[in-house]
Amino acid sequence: MFDNGMSEWVVVLTVALLVLGPQRALAITRFAGVMLGKAKAALADVQAQVEKELPQEELQVLKDNVVALKRSNVKRKVQEVLAPLEKKG
């Protein structure tokens, strides 16, 4: 998401330390770390739910494809059987 390297973060933290002071900068950094941890946990939870539900959807699509294939095979077999009968009649 952010395309920042370590050197950019060092600059940001140094400026924050100078502007906010050591105690407020540490408190804000700690708060940002906690929020980042919560965001990562929420993202992991959503990802786990998607991975859990996705195979069910894929299995349903696969099942539908198999049923459609069976129907087309049955239809083709019936047509093969009826074709000679129609020629005779």
Automatic annotation (TrEMBL):
Keyword Translocase: no
GO cellular component assignments: membrane
Protein location: Membrane
Keywords attached to this entry: Membrane, Protein transport, Translocation, Transmembrane, Transmembrane helix, Transport
Entry's Gene Ontology BP terms: protein transport
Membrane topology: Single-pass membrane protein
Presence of the UniProt keyword Transmembrane helix in the record: yes
Main subcellular localisation: membrane
InterPro entries per record: TatA/B/E (IPR003369)
Source superkingdom: Bacteria
Protein name (Swiss-Prot/TrEMBL): Twin-arginine translocase subunit TatB
Taxonomic path: Bacteria, Pseudomonadati, Pseudomonadota, Gammaproteobacteria, Pseudomonadales
